[in-house]
Hints:
This protein has 5 helices and 6 strands; from the N terminus they run βαβαβαβββαα. The chain is an alpha/beta fold. The chain has one domain: Alpha-Beta Complex (Maf protein), CATH 3.90.950.10. It has a 6-stranded mixed sheet. Bound molecules: inosine 5'-triphosphate (ITT).
Amino acid sequence: MKIVLATSNPNKVREINEMVQGTGIEFILPPEGFDPVEDGETFEDNSLIKARAAWEISHTWTLADDSGLCIDALDGAPGIYSARYAETPQKRIDRVLEEMSGIKNRTAHFECCMTLINPAGGVEKVVQGVCEGSIALKQSGIHGFGYDPIFLLKDSDKTMAELEDDEKNKISHRSKALAGILKYLSTAAKQSI
Length: 193
Ligand code: ITT
């Protein structure tokens, strides 16, 4: 089964396809012309906006992932603005480290909202996934993408970027959300929905 992944971020496609290996599902990029305006106020809003935009140009099963880093001491920032917090991934990390300088409460979490749309254009399922942690004092690690080098995992001295891909995929916000989608799809398949 092929599902359009409503994203322009190749890191999401790579991670999600690694997670579904052996399930018979393959995620593919949307057709040309996918360029949604993510002007929602929540991860859920933006996930729905992206899923609908990809469905409009594909009319097939479509899944969107809207995700980001939420830092308690910054009132949840960068949150839905995670991809736009500065010009480049490194500048986004630098901005967070700068804003967190001298702050003791460093708790944070990654959040992911996935929306699944069926070929008729109906919303089949919406799921959330969360991964708890905190912001490191300095970046470390080379794996993953985005804010992974400054995200210290809860009860661990490692950042997300110090995990191998398969280790990240067992605990990430994205893998938790995807597990909900896969469970839904396998139940639906058994009931031939
Ligand atoms: P699409 O909207 O095209 O899917 P995007 O990267 O702009 O791609 P989002 O709007 O969902 O996606 O923003 C997600 C940002 O949050 C992403 O660019 C990273 O900066 C950050 N992020 C999300 N998941 C992450 C992860 O697993 N590790 C590190 N950073 C992550």
